[in-house]
Each structure stands twice: as structure tokens, then as C-alpha cells.
Write a structure and sequence with these properties.
By secondary structure, this protein is mainly beta. The protein has helices at 8-37, 43-53; strands at 58-66, 74-78, 81-85, 89-93, 99-104, 110-115, 118-123, 128-133, 136-142, 149-154, 160-164, 171-176, 186-190, 194-201, 204-213, 216-225, 235-239, 244-250, 253-258, 261-266, 269-275, 280-285, 292-297, 305-310, 316-322, 326-332, 335-340, 343-348, 353-358, 365-368, 374-377, 381-386. 11% of the residues lie in helices and 52% in strands.
Length: 387
């Protein structure tokens, strides 16, 4: 009778070989998936959302913030923190939804802007201005009754530009460095034209003023060196097509939104412009990475129009016809969130669909996050959507 021997040493290796084969197969599959996902750059955001939130998708949304409902509520994101401003209070909530800082305010026309990880809350035509970061209050300013605030901006470095009326002048813009000392590092005072807005780009202050040429209103942008004390700009250009409504920055270019066009400039020279071609400006957002967003209406009222994303040269990246009501738009990173009456749509910078959510409840405003997640804001609460 023959005896068959089993090689125990080989038998023990089989599970190890099987496990190694499984790992190699899994690695190959992951590589294929990642290469496909990262083709448009969104793969990194998918991974970030999964690692941060512990899941990659939340179709229904999760309530993360509760705040006091008010008709004049204004909202801004500072990372995962939420700033809520009304005509009676200013509050800061952390990512867990806990109130970190709050103060009573009295504002007739509350306005809220953000940039560089900070938010500036102020009263248009009033005398109160507050600057916050994720830890709480950084700076509080109070203007004279005769020199109320007109506008405020924060650039990506957290530099603050405050435009206000000025006794004896047509207006002024004060600039505060990132340290936010109580005293400004620069002040431009205009003697000839009314000042509408200011924004710090690089080492210069870009100030928009309004004047007349040949009986026609013209918006003029002047660049002022922050290291010099001069009333005359070192460079300037006119925007003859429309009256300036807001300004910001896109990839180092000064961006000015008017009621008729979006204009980009560098070094005092216009580098590109996008004309609305007779359409009416409904809304805009300069918060995208490498693109600005315009919501244009064909008529003064109604909901027939188009969404357009524009690059720094004034060229359209994407165009989308709109034939329904748009409640809110918000751009951040490579994404654009558009809140319709019945759903939320997330697009990329070319206005190609990325994600969608139906059943938005009572949401009336959205805030896009750079990782692709969206905050849906309703009367007294906000929920998070993870594509």
C-alpha cells in the first residue's frame, strides 16, 4: 500500500499567494478607477470627501447648522464654519454646528463678503463693520455718521479694502493688511469722482469710480501703489460698457462686473471682456477657481436666460440655456451649484453636469464648497449635500 505525502510547506503558501493576488487585482482596479476619475480633477475631491466625511455620497442631505430665521439673513463659509448675519445679529458656527461667537448688531442693509479665510460684515450706508475668522472676531470698525460705509472686499490673502463716503471728497478707500491693525496701511481719497468699490490686487489697490464723459456715465478703474501716498493712479482704464456693480480677482486679473459686461484687466490694461449682448444681469459669482459665473436674463423679468462661465480672458467656457426659476448660484473650486425651484444641480466649470439632488425641501440659497459638497440654506437651518 503506497502512502501519499502532502507537502505542508507548500500548502501554507497558498493563502498568502491568493491574498497577494487579490491585493494586486485590487490595486489594478483602483488604478483604473482613479485614472478615470482624475481625468477631470474631481477624483481628488471624491477622495477628500470620503476621508473627511466617512462616506462618498449623501443623497438626502444632513442638517449641520441651526440658526435664527430672519428675512435679511446673509451667509458666508469660512472652511467648514458658517457665518450668519442679519439686521440684528452676527453669529459664527463651527463645523459641528456649535455657535463659536455671536454679537448683537443693528443694521439696515446688512452685507457679508468673504476671502482669505475671513468674512467682513457691514451695514451698507451705515457705520458698523466686523471682520471674523474661524475663531471669532478679529476687527471691529465704527465709521462717523457723516462717512458711512459703501462697500468692503477681502482678497485671497485676507487684505481688507473698505470704501466709504469722505467729508470734503467724493469718497475714499482704506486698506488694511492681513494683520488687521486698527489703523489702515493706505488710504485713497478721491476729489473728482465718486468711489464705488475697492479691491487689493497684488501690491496695488484697484478702485472703481464713477464719472461722466460727453454726458455719459463711465466707470473708471485706477491702480494705486500701496507703498506710495498719491491721489493720482499709476495706471487707469475706463469701462464704457455699463456701470460697475462689483469687483474681484480671477487668476491675477482684476475683474469688474457691470450691468452690461464682465471686464478683466492687468497692469491697468483691459485683457478681456464678456458682453451680455443686451441681456440683463440677474446674478453673478466670482468665487470659482479659474472661472467667473454669470446668470443672464433675456428680459427684465421672468426666468428665460442663460448661465455662462467665463475665463480670465473674457471667453465663455460653458453656456447653459435656462428656462426655469433659479433661486441661488454659488461657485467654489472647480464647481458651480445652481439651486432651482425643485432641485439642486452641481456643474463643473464647463457647465457639464456633475451631481444632482431632488427634494431640496425649503432651501432657498446654496453655498458651494471647494471639495464639491454643497450647503443648502433654508429659513433656520442648513443641510449638507455630498455628491
Amino acid at each position: 500500500m503506497s502512502e501519499k505525502r502532502v507537502d505542508k510547506s507548500k500548502e501554507g503558501r497558498r493563502p498568502i499567494r491568493s491574498f497577494l493576488s487579490f491585493l494586486l487585482l485590487l490595486a489594478a482596479v483602483l488604478l483604473v478607477v482613479l485614472l478615470a476619475a482624475y481625468r477631470d480633477g474631481t477624483g481628488f475631491d471624491i477622495l477628500r470627501r470620503y476621508l473627511h466625511y466617512g462616506r462618498s455620497e449623501q443623497t438626502g442631505g444632513e442638517t449641520v447648522y441651526h440658526y435664527e430665521a430672519a428675512s435679511k439673513n446673509r451667509f458666508a463659509l469660512l472652511g467648514e464654519s458658517l457665518v450668519v448675519l442679519s439686521d440684528a445679529s452676527l453669529s459664527l458656527y463651527n463645523g459641528a454646528g456649535e455657535e463659536v461667537w455671536s454679537a448683537p448688531v443693528t443694521m439696515t442693509a446688512p452685507a457679508l463678503v468673504s476671502g482669505g479665510g475671513r468674512a467682513a460684515a457691514y451695514d451698507v450706508g451705515g457705520t458698523a463693520l466686523y471682520v471674523l475668522d474661524q475663531t471669532g472676531l478679529l476687527l471691529e470698525l465704527t465709521a462717523d455718521e457723516e462717512e458711512p460705509y459703501i462697500s468692503a472686499t477681502l482678497n485671497k490673502n485676507g487684505e481688507l479694502a473698505v470704501t466709504a463716503q469722505k467729508k470734503g471728497y467724493k469718497g475714499s478707500v482704506k486698506v488694511y493688511d492681513p494683520a488687521l491693525e486698527a489703523e489702515p496701511i493706505f488710504e485713497f481719497k478721491s476729489s473728482r469722482r465718486f468711489v464705488l468699490d475697492g479691491y487689493v490686487v497684488g501690491n496695488d489697490l484697484a478702485a472703481v469710480s464713477l464719472g461722466q464723459e460727453n454726458g455719459v456715465f463711465v466707470s473708471s478703474v485706477g491702480l494705486y501703489d500701496l507703498s506710495k501716498d498719491a491721489e493720482e493712479p499709476q495706471a487707469s482704464y475706463n469701462i464704457s460698457d455699463g456701470l460697475a456693480a462689483a469687483m474681484g480677482e480671477l487668476e491675477g486679473r482684476t475683474a469688474v462686473v457691470t450691468d452690461a459686461s464682465l471686464t478683466f484687466a492687468a497692469g491697468g490694461e483691459i485683457t478681456g471682456a464678456y458682453s451680455y449682448d443686451g441681456a440683463y444681469l440677474r446674478d453673478y459669482d466670482l468665487g470659482g477657481t479659474g472661472f467667473a459665473t454669470l446668470l443672464l436674463n433675456r428680459y427684465r423679468s421672468g426666468s428665460v436666460g442663460r448661465l455662462v462661465t467665463v475665463d480670465k480672458n473674457g471667453e465663455a467656457l460653458g453656456t447653459l440655456d435656462v428656462r426655469e426659476e433659479v433661486l441661488s448660484i454659488s461657485a467654489s473650486g472647480r464647481y458651480l451649484a445652481v439651486l432651482y425651484a425643485d432641485r439642486l444641480e452641481v456643474y463643473n466649470q464647463d457647465l457639464q453636469p456633475y451631481a444632482a439632488l431632488r427634494g431640496i425641501g425649503s432651501a432657498r440659497e446654496v453655498l458651494m464648497r471647494p471639495d464639491g459638497s454643497v450647503l443648502l440654506l433654508s429659513g433656520g437651518s442648513a443641510s449638507l449635500f455630498l455628491p
